[in-house]
Specification:
The complex is a heterotetramer.
Chain A lengths: L5 H33 L6 H18 L4 H24 L7 H23 L15 E3 L2 E3 L1 H23 L1 H11 L1 H6 L4 H27 L6 H15 L4 H22 L4 H15 L8 H6 L3
Antiparallel strand pairs in A: 1-2
Helix pairs in contact in A: 1-5, 1-6, 1-8, 1-9, 1-10, 2-3, 2-4, 2-8, 2-9, 3-8, 5-6, 5-8, 9-10, 10-11
Chain B lengths: L7 E12 L2 E5 L3 E4 L3 E5 L6 H8 L7 E6 L2 E2 L5 H7 L1 E3 L12 H8 L8 H5 L3 H21 L14 H14 L4 E5 L7 H16 L3 E5 L3 H7 L2 E6 L2 E6 L1 H5 L2 H8 L4
Parallel strand pairs in B: 4-9, 4-10, 7-8, 8-9
Antiparallel strand pairs in B: 1-2, 1-3, 1-5, 5-6, 10-11
Chain D lengths: L5 H20 L6 H24 L7 H18 L4 H23 L4 H21 L1 H4 L5 E2 L5 E2 L2 E2 L3 H23 L2 H11 L1 H6 L4 H27 L1 E2 L6 H14 L4 H16 L9 H15 L7 H11 L1
Antiparallel strand pairs in D: 1-4, 2-3
Helix pairs in contact in D: 1-7, 2-7, 2-8, 2-10, 2-11, 2-12, 3-4, 3-5, 3-10, 4-10, 8-10, 11-12
Classes of the chains: A mainly alpha, B alpha/beta, C alpha/beta, D mainly alpha.
C-alpha cells in the first residue's frame, strides 16, 4: 500500500470537506430560494434531497431507465412534490407566523419521511456512480469521480440560478416578491404563483443534491432531517437569502467538519462547525453576507 | 429640586453622528431650558429623528455629548436614559398593538414602579399593591388624555389620531422631566391636530419640558417657546418663533436653495 | 372553561372505549422492540420474527393447550417510551415475561423495572451491563439476554488478529450506543490481547463520508482496521476504504454487519472483509452435523416464506428469547418467579439461532465466544474464514 | 392574553388531584397516570418556553440541552458521588441557569431565524458533549443507577406518588408563571414581543428581560430533567437530542403559545399521542402524526387553547 504524506492528508481532508460542503451548499441554496420569496425556512428541504435520491434509485435501478432520462424524471417528480407541499401545507395557513410556518414545514417533513418509509422501507439504497468507482489520485489525495459530479452540479446550479434571477422576467419577478411583496402584487405579479414557483425550484435543487450524493453516501428515508439542519446552518452562516453566502457557508461548514475530524477529534467534528457558526453570528448577527436590516424585520 | 427656573435640562454639545461616510448630524449645538416647549424643525433628511435617537440612546454619537440635567448621557443605554427621565414618542407609531390601551399606559409606568421577577412570581403583597397603584395612575393619565372610556380596547384598534395621543399618554406615564415628541401631528386631520396641540400645551403646563419635532408649522408656531432649525445635520438657526419665521437662512433651506 | 372540560371529558371517554374489550385467557408474553425509528433495522425483524414464532406456536396447539398471546409495543429506540411500554405490559397487560427491548440504551432504561415488578425480562440487546450489576458484582436477578455481547465479538476479532500476528490496529466507531459500547470493549480488551490502538476514530450515524477518518488512519499505517457500526455508515466506510486504496489493510467489521444486504450495498467493496457472525447469518454454510443446523435452516426457510425478504440476524435474538420464554411457560406455567427460576436453572444447552445457551445464577448471558464464527466476504457472499 | 382567574386554577388543581383515581377506575387506562408523569415533566419545560416564546417572542430550538443538563448533573452527582438528590437538583438548576446566562446574553441579540439557528447549534453542541464525555456521562450507552427521590424517609417510589410530586412542581411553576405574566414583568415581556424599540424607550431593559426569561425557562427545563432522571433511574443522550427540542416546539405550537394553558395542553396531547394513541396506527404512525400537526397549524393558528376564543368570536358574529 502506498503511504500518505501529511500534505496529502491535508489535501484529502479539504477535498472531502468541499464535497460534503457542496451538498450542504445545495441544501442551503434551496432554503434561500424559498426564504427570499416567502421568509419561510422550509425544514422539509432535507426531505427533497432524500426523495431525490430514493426516486432516482427507483427509476434508475428499479425500473432501469438510463441515467440521462431518470435524472430529469426524478427532478420533475420531486418538483411536483415541492409544489404539492406549498399547496397543501403552506398556502392554506390562515394566519402565518414564523413559528406556525416552522411547525408546518416540520409537519410536512414528518409526512414526507413517513410516506417515504412506507414506499421504500427503512433500508438504505445505493445508486451506481455516474462515471464508475475508480478513484483518481491527485496530489497524494484519492478522489472518487463522483466528487467531481457533486462539485460540478453545485457550480451548474449556482450559474443557472444566477442567470435565472438576473436575466429572465420570471426570475426578476421572483426577486421583486422578495424585496416587497405588496409592491410586487401592485405591479401585477401573482405572489402566490411566485411562492409556488419557489417551492418548485428549491425542490428541484434538492432533488439534484440527492441524486448526486446517493452514490457516495447511500440514501434512506430518514436522512432528510440531518441534511436540513446542516443546510440551514450553511444558509445562516452565509447570511439568509444570499446565494453566494449559501455556497460559502456550505463549503466552510464542510471544510471545518472535515479538518476538525482529521486534525483534532472526529467525535467533536459537528460541534466545531457549530461553534464557529455561533461565533460568526455573535460577531455578525446576520451571517457573512446577510443584510442586517433584512434580519431586523423578521419579527417572531 | 433647587433652582429649576433657568436651568438647562438638556444640552446637545457638538454631536456628530456618522453612518459610514454619511454625516447625519454635524455638530449641532443647543440647549433646552427646563419648563419650555422647544421645537426642532428642518427639511426632510435634516437629521431631526436621528437627533432624537441620539438623545434617547438608540444611537450612540460618533462624537460629542448629550447632557441631561448636567450629566452626560450619551454612553447610557436607552432604557437607562428612560430611567433618568426622558421619554419619547415615535414618528412611525410604535404602540404595543397586542396590548390594551390601559396596558400600554401601564407599561409606561415601568420605570417608576417596578416589581421584581421573584416578587411578581410569588405574588407578594408588595407586588400586588404596586400593580394596583400602576393601574390607578394609568387610568388617571387616560382620563387626562381623554381615552379612559377605551381603556380595554386593543391599542391597534384605535384610529390613527387616538393612537398618536395614546403614545403621548404612554410617554407621560413614566413621569418624565423631558418628553420628546416625534411628529405628533403627522397624518392627523384638523380637529385631531387641534387636540394634539392642546394636549402638548397641557403637558407643558404640568411642568414637563417638551422637545418637539414637527412638520406642521401651524402647530410649531402655536405651541413652541423656542425653535431650533436643522439642515443637513447642522444647526442653522435658533430662537423664538417670530425670529425664525423671518430668518433668511431658514427660508432658503425650506425653499431648497441649492447653491 | 366549561367547553374545555367537555372536550377533555369526551376525549378521555373516546380513548378509553377502545380498551374495554376484555381479553381471553392465555399465556401472555410482552415484547418491546424499536420497530420504527432510526434503529428499526433491529426492531423490525425482531417484531416480525416474534410474531411469526408466536403464530407457529399457536398453530402447533399453543403452550400446553393454552394460546400464547404476544403483545408487542414499539419503543422507537426511545428510552422513555421503552420504560412506559414495559410498565404498561407488566401492570396493565399483566404479562408473565417481557422480551426486548432491542437496544442497550432502552434495555438499561427498563432493567430497574424488572426487579421492581419482579418480572423476568429477556433483553435482545448486546451490552453485558444489561444483565450484570457492576456495583453488586452479581447478575441482575430478573434480567436475561440473548444476543452475544460486544465482549464476545471483540474476543473473536482479537483472537483472529492475534493468530495472524497483528497487533497494531486502528478502530473506528459510530457515535451511537452500539458503536460506543463496542469501542469501549475494544479499548478495554486491547491490553489482554497485546493490541496497540493507533487510532480511535468516530463518525455520526448520519454521516455521508468517512474518507477523512480513513485518511488519518492511512497516515498511521496500522496492520488492521476494526470498525463498529450499524446501518448505512458501515457500508460507506467500506467504499471509502476501497477507494482510498487501503485494501491491503485487513478490515474487520463488527457483528452488526450481519446482513447480505450490506454486501450488496457495498457494491463490491466488501470483498475480503471479515466479521464475526452467529450461526443464523450463515445457515447455508453450516454442515448438517452442526448443532444449530436444524434450527437455523428452519428459521431461514420460514422467515423467507412469510415475509419474502432476506433474513436479518437480529430477528434471531427475538427467536431465541421467545422460544426460551415459551419453554419456561410450558414447564412452569405463568408464575413469574418460577419462570425466572426456570430460565436460570433449566436453560442448559438450549439450541438457539445465535448459539447454544447455558444460563446459570452467575451468567444471564448464556453464550461464550464460540457463538461467533469468523466469516469473510468472498464473491459477494459469506464464507467461513480460515 | 387571557387573564387567568382563581376558578380555572382551582379546577386545574382539582383535576390533577383526582386524575390517578379516575384513571384507576376506568379499565384499560390505569397506566395513564404513568404517561401523565411524563406529560407533567414536559409541561414544566413548555411552561417556561411559553413565557420565552409566546410572551417574550424569543424562539429557542435548544431547550433539550437544559433538560439534559438538569438530568446529567443530577445523574452524575447522585450516581457517581452519592450526593443527596435534592441538592443535585439545585446544582442542576444552578448549572443550567449559569449556562443560560452565558449563552443567552449573546444569542438573544440575534433575531428570528438567526436566533433559531444559534439555539439549535447550542443544543446540538451540548448533545455531542453528552455523547463524547463518556467518562462522566456514560456516553451514548447512557448512565444507570440513578436513585429515586425521597424526602424525610418518604419515598416517591410508586407511579402515583411521583405523579403528585411532578404535578406539584408543574402547578407551582404554572402559578408562578401566571403571576409573572399578570405583573409588570409580564407586561414588559409582551411589550418586547410587540416592539423592542418602544419597550426600550419606555425604560424596559430589553436585553436584560430577554436573558432573564431565558434563564427562567432553562431553570424549569433543568428541573424537569432532574425529575426525569430520578424517575427513570437511567438517562442517555438520545433523550436530549435535537428532535426533542423540536418536539417541544410542536407542543407549544399545538397547545397555543400565547397562552399558558396551551403549554400544558400541548405537552399533554403530544405526550399521549406519542406514547399512547398513535400506537394504534402502527406503520402509519408517523404519517398520522404529521397530518395532525398540519391540520392544527392550518386550522387553529392559536393552537388548541385558542379554540374557545375562536368559537366565541364565531358565535359572536352570528
Amino acid at each position: 500500500m502506498e503511504t500518505i504524506t501529511p500534505a496529502g492528508q491535508l489535501f484529502q481532508y479539504l477535498i472531502t470537506g468541499i464535497t460534503v460542503g457542496s451538498i450542504y451548499a445545495m441544501v442551503a441554496v434551496g432554503f434561500n430560494i424559498i426564504y427570499n420569496v416567502t421568509e419561510i425556512i422550509n425544514f422539509a428541504q432535507g426531505e427533497f434531497v432524500m426523495l431525490g435520491g430514493l426516486v432516482m434509485v427507483s427509476l434508475h435501478v428499479g425500473m432501469g431507465l438510463p441515467l440521462i432520462a431518470a435524472f430529469p424524471a426524478t427532478m420533475i417528480i420531486v418538483t411536483l412534490v415541492g409544489m404539492l407541499l406549498d399547496r397543501l401545507a403552506i398556502s392554506p395557513i390562515r394566519r402565518p407566523t414564523v413559528l406556525s410556518l416552522i411547525i408546518a414545514t416540520i409537519a410536512a417533513s414528518i409526512l414526507l419521511k413517513g410516506t417515504a418509509m412506507f414506499i421504500w422501507g427503512k433500508d438504505p439504497y445505493d445508486l451506481p456512480a455516474f462515471s464508475g468507482r475508480n478513484p483518481i489520485t491527485f496530489l497524494g489525495a484519492v478522489i472518487q469521480p463522483q466528487y467531481f459530479w457533486v462539485i460540478g452540479f453545485l457550480i451548474i446550479t449556482v450559474i443557472v440560478l444566477t442567470l435565472f434571477f438576473e436575466k429572465t422576467i420570471l426570475g426578476k419577478a421572483m426577486s421583486a416578491c422578495a424585496d416587497n411583496p405588496d409592491a410586487a402584487s401592485l405591479v401585477g405579479i401573482n405572489v402566490k404563483q411566485m411562492i409556488l414557483l419557489s417551492f418548485a425550484l428549491s425542490a428541484a435543487i434538492g432533488a439534484v443534491a440527492g441524486i448526486v450524493v446517493t452514490p457516495i453516501s447511500l440514501m434512506e428515508y430518514d436522512r432528510g432531517a440531518m441534511l436540513a439542519v446542516k443546510g440551514f446552518g450553511a444558509a445562516v452562516l452565509g447570511g439568509l437569502g444570499s446565494f453566494p453566502g449559501a455556497v460559502i457557508g456550505g463549503l466552510i461548514l464542510g471544510a471545518i467538519e472535515s479538518l476538525g475530524a482529521g486534525l483534532i477529534s472526529s467525535g467533536y467534528k459537528d460541534a466545531f462547525a457549530l461553534i464557529v457558526l455561533m461565533f460568526v453570528l455573535f460577531y455578525k448577527p446576520s451571517g457573512i453576507f446577510g443584510d442586517i436590516e433584512v434580519s431586523k424585520i423578521k419579527r417572531f | 429640586m433647587n433652582d429649576t427656573s433657568n436651568e438647562n435640562i438638556l444640552e446637545v454639545d457638538k454631536v456628530v453622528m456618522a453612518f459610514g461616510g454619511l454625516m447625519a448630524l454635524f455638530k449641532p449645538d443647543f440647549s433646552v431650558q427646563r419648563g419650555i416647549i422647544k421645537a426642532i424643525i428642518g427639511p426632510n433628511g435634516a437629521g431631526k429623528t436621528t437627533l432624537f435617537n441620539v438623545i434617547t440612546g438608540f444611537f450612540s454619537p460618533t462624537e460629542g455629548t448629550v447632557r441631561f440635567k448636567g450629566q452626560p448621557i450619551s454612553s447610557l443605554k436607552t432604557h437607562e436614559i428612560a430611567d433618568r427621565g426622558i421619554s419619547r414618542t415615535f414618528q412611525t407609531i410604535e404602540l404595543f398593538g397586542n396590548m390594551s390601551v390601559l396596558e400600554n399606559v401601564m407599561l409606561g409606568c415601568h420605570t417608576r414602579v417596578r416589581a421584581s421577577f421573584m416578587a411578581a412570581g410569588f405574588c407578594l403583597p408588595g407586588a400586588r399593591r404596586k400593580e394596583k397603584e400602576i393601574q390607578e395612575r394609568a387610568m388617571k393619565i387616560l382620563r387626562f388624555i381623554g381615552l379612559a372610556d377605551k381603556c380595554n380596547d386593543p391599542a391597534d384598534s384605535l384610529p390613527l389620531g387616538e393612537q398618536k395621543i395614546l403614545e403621548i399618554g404612554r410617554a407621560l406615564a413614566s413621569e418624565p422631566e423631558l418628553v420628546c415628541l416625534d411628529e405628533p401631528a403627522a397624518g392627523l386631520n384638523e380637529t385631531e391636530t387641534h387636540v394634539a396641540s392642546s394636549l402638548i400645551k397641557a403637558i407643558n403646563a404640568k411642568g414637563v419640558t417638551v422637545l418637539l419635532v414637527e412638520h406642521d408649522m401651524k402647530v410649531v408656531m402655536n405651541v413652541s417657546d423656542e425653535i431650533v432649525v436643522l439642515n443637513y445635520g447642522q444647526k442653522i438657526a435658533e430662537g423664538p418663533p417670530k425670529e425664525i419665521r423671518n430668518n433668511p437662512k431658514v427660508i432658503e433651506a425650506y425653499l431648497g436653495g441649492d447653491t | 372553561m366549561k367547553l374545555r372540560r367537555i372536550v377533555i371529558f369526551t376525549t378521555v371517554c373516546l380513548f378509553s372505549l377502545g380498551f374495554l374489550v376484555s381479553p381471553a385467557l392465555a399465556f401472555k408474553v410482552g415484547a418491546v422492540f424499536s420497530v420504527t425509528g432510526r434503529t428499526s433495522f433491529l426492531g423490525d425483524p425482531e417484531k416480525k420474527t416474534a410474531v411469526m414464532v408466536a403464530e407457529q406456536i399457536n398453530a402447533a396447539g399453543g403452550i400446553n393447550g393454552e394460546k400464547l398471546e404476544l403483545i408487542v409495543y414499539d419503543s422507537e429506540g426511545d428510552a422513555t417510551k421503552a420504560n412506559l411500554a414495559v410498565k404498561k405490559l407488566i401492570t396493565q397487560d399483566k404479562v408473565s415475561v417481557v422480551i426486548g427491548p432491542s437496544l442497550s440504551g432502552t434495555s438499561m432504561a427498563v432493567v430497574p423495572l424488572a426487579a421492581k415488578y419482579k418480572t423476568p425480562l429477556i433483553s435482545c440487546a448486546a451490552s453485558y451491563k444489561i444483565t450484570w450489576d457492576k456495583e453488586k458484582g452479581t447478575a441482575r436477578k430478573w434480567v436475561f439476554k440473548t444476543p452475544q455481547t460486544d465482549t464476545m465479538a471483540v474476543d473473536a476479532i482479537y483472537s483472529a488478529l492475534k493468530q495472524k500476528g497483528i497487533s497494531k490496529i486502528a478502530i473506528m466507531s459510530v457515535t451511537s450506543g452500539f458503536g460506543a459500547s463496542g469501542r469501549g470493549e475494544l479499548i478495554r480488551l486491547a491490553p489482554e490481547y497485546g493490541m496497540t490502538i493507533m487510532a480511535d476514530e468516530k463518525y455520526g450515524p448520519k454521516d455521508t463520508d468517512m474518507t477523512v477518518q480513513l485518511t488519518k488512519i492511512k497516515g498511521l499505517a496500522p496492520k488492521a482496521i476494526v470498525n463498529w457500526s450499524v446501518g448505512p455508515t458501515q457500508v460507506v466506510v467500506l467504499r471509502n476504504w476501497r477507494d482510498l486504496g487501503m485494501k491491503s489493510i485487513p478490515f474487520y467489521q463488527s457483528h452488526g454487519f450481519g446482513s447480505r444486504k450490506n454486501i450488496e450495498l457495498a457494491a463490491g467493496a466488501a470483498e475480503g472483509v471479515f466479521c464475526p457472525l452467529g450461526a443464523v447469518n450463515i445457515a447455508e454454510l453450516l454442515t448438517p452435523y452442526d448443532t444449530q443446523y436444524a434450527v437455523a435452516q428452519r428459521y431461514l426457510k420460514d422467515y423467507k416464506a412469510k415475509y419474502n425478504e432476506p433474513l436479518s440476524s437480529f430477528g434471531g435474538h427475538a427467536w431465541d428469547a421467545l422460544h426460551m420464554a415459551a419453554q419456561a411457560l410450558a414447564s412452569v406455567g405463568d408464575d413469574k418467579a418460577k419462570i425466572r427460576d426456570y430460565l436460570e436453572n433449566n436453560i442448559k444447552g438450549f439450541v438457539g439461532q445465535h448459539g447454544v445457551f447455558f444460563y446459570s445464577p452467575d451468567d444471564h448471558i448464556g453464550l461464550d465466544k464460540a457463538a461467533f464464527r469468523m466469516v469473510v466476504v468472498r464473491d459477494g457472499d459469506w464464507a467461513l474464514a480460515d | 392574553m387571557l387573564r387567568i382567574g382563581k376558578l380555572p386554577i382551582s379546577t386545574f388543581a382539582f383535576l390533577i388531584i383526582i386524575f390517578p383515581w379516575v384513571a384507576h377506575q376506568i379499565p384499560g387506562i390505569e397506566h395513564y397516570t404513568d404517561v401523565m408523569v411524563f406529560a407533567g415533566i414536559y409541561s414544566l419545560i413548555t411552561i417556561g418556553l411559553s413565557l420565552l416564546m409566546g410572551y417574550a417572542g424569543q424562539i429557542s430550538v435548544g431547550h433539550a440541552a437544559f433538560y439534559g443538563i438538569g438530568a446529567y448533573v443530577s445523574g452524575i452527582l447522585t450516581a457517581r458521588y452519592g450526593l443527596n438528590p435534592w441538592i443535585c437538583m439545585l446544582a442542576g438548576i444552578s448549572v443550567a441557569g449559569a449556562v443560560a446566562l452565558i449563552v443567552g446574553a449573546p444569542c438573544l441579540k440575534l433575531k428570528g431565524h438567526y436566533l433559531a439557528m444559534a439555539t439549535l447549534a447550542f443544543g446540538i453542541i451540548i448533545f455531542i458533549v453528552f455523547n463524547e464525555e463518556a467518562e462522566w456521562t456514560g456516553g451514548p450507552d447512557g448512565m444507570s443507577g440513578i436513585p429515586g427521590l425521597s424526602i424525610f424517609g418518604f419515598d416517591f417510589d410508586s407511579v402515583e406518588k411521583y405523579f403528585y410530586l411532578v404535578w406539584g412542581f408543574v402547578f407551582a411553576a404554572f402559578v408562578f408563571s401566571v403571576n409573572i405574566i399578570q405583573s409588570g414583568a409580564g407586561r414588559a415581556l409582551r411589550a418586547i414581543h410587540s416592539s423592542e424599540t418602544a419597550a426600550n424607550a419606555m425604560g424596559v431593559n430589553v436585553s436584560g428581560y430577554k436573558v432573564l426569561v431565558f434563564v427562567y425557562s432553562a431553570v424549569l427545563a433543568s428541573l424537569a430533567g432532574s425529575l426525569y432522571a430520578h424517575y427513570l433511574n437511567f438517562i442517555n443522550p438520545a433523550t436530549f437530542d435535537l428532535f426533542f427540542s423540536i418536539k417541544l416546539l410542536i407542543m407549544i405550537a399545538l397547545g397555543g403559545m400565547h397562552n399558558l394553558w396551551g403549554a400544558v395542553i400541548g405537552a399533554g396531547i403530544i405526550t399521549f399521542l406519542n406514547y399512547e394513541w398513535l400506537h394504534y396506527f402502527e406503520e402509519f404512525e408517523v404519517i398520522v402524526y404529521g397530518a395532525i400537526l398540519l391540520v392544527v397549524v392550518i386550522f387553529f393558528p392559536d393552537g388548541l387553547a385558542g379554540i374557545p376564543d375562536m368559537l366565541k368570536k364565531r358565535l359572536g358574529k352570528h
